[in-house]
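Dear colleagues,

I hope this message finds you well. In preparation for our joint manuscript, I am sending the PITH domain-containing protein (Hypocrea atroviridis) sequence together with its predicted structure, so that both groups work from identical material. I would be grateful if you could confirm receipt.
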Amino acid sequence: MADAVEDVASKVQLDELLKSSPIVIVKFYSNDDESCRQIEPLYQALASQIGRPRLLVFAKVDNDTCQDLVQEYGITVLPTFILFRKGTLMHTVQGANSAELRNVIGKIVSELEHLVEGMGGEGGPPEAWKGAEIPKGYGDVTDQVELRGCELLNADDNAGPVKVLFESSKPSALGLGKSTATDWVQSGSDDQLLLFIPFQSTIKLHTLQITSVIPQGNTDVSRPVEIGLFLNRTSNMDFGEAEDAEPTQSITLEPEHWNSESTASISLRFVKFQKTNTLTIFVQQGDGEADAVRIDRIKLIGEAGAKRDMGKLQKLDDDE
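The corresponding structure tokens are as follows:
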């Protein structure tokens, strides 16, 4: 059973693994940590049961001997499980949380099953779900989001974490008739949300795609209607500041903007968004009289630039 998990001893080895396998799950551990020892049998069992060579790979990194990787991924809790899809960090599970680990891996396995069915059982990278068509000449740059730096204010505690907004998988509420997992977020005390998104590189942002699936018969939540976008803030705003500040672009979404995939594709003032280091999305108001507003996915379309140092964010003018 031990052979089911690949030992990673260097950054070069991990980088090669991320290039060769579309889905990689990495456990950071220490042999001296009791929590790591307790969850190891479960991790080994999952690797044996669902691991697939060059498709879904389970790996582990010794926290005591690979300090370069520990620092690169900001490991502060043991064990920590990091899940990569096509080389991009998608999920992090901290601690010996077997329920959360099973839940996250379960979602990936579901995607994997669809992939294998569509390819007649052959391996290969999963196709990302499209909520709307991507404008010609541009690409999906959602993988440039620095997930660890994202912050969502006024989120309902019972909804999913902010990182689910940037998943490439199809929202569970679409095609199933109802949500079977908390892969969406919604507001808590009222119908406002403030989302701060830092990027790994300076990007040219062309289009913002927002998916909001309202379960049939649910009148307690609504889709966003009034949205303000702010550029290159060094941290999240508070609601009072967002109300008073002049946004880089204001958006009003009408019912006809939402397609059959519950996605609105918003064209941005491309000249304004040529040098985007961070984006703040202020959902100021939802539709109708609902007490909360819901978002299932956010996709960012444009062009990515060179990666930058996330510790040296500088506040830039909106007009730059």
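For the figure legend, we might mention the following. The chain has a mean pLDDT of 85. The chain is about 20% helix and 30% strand.

With kind regards,
E.M.
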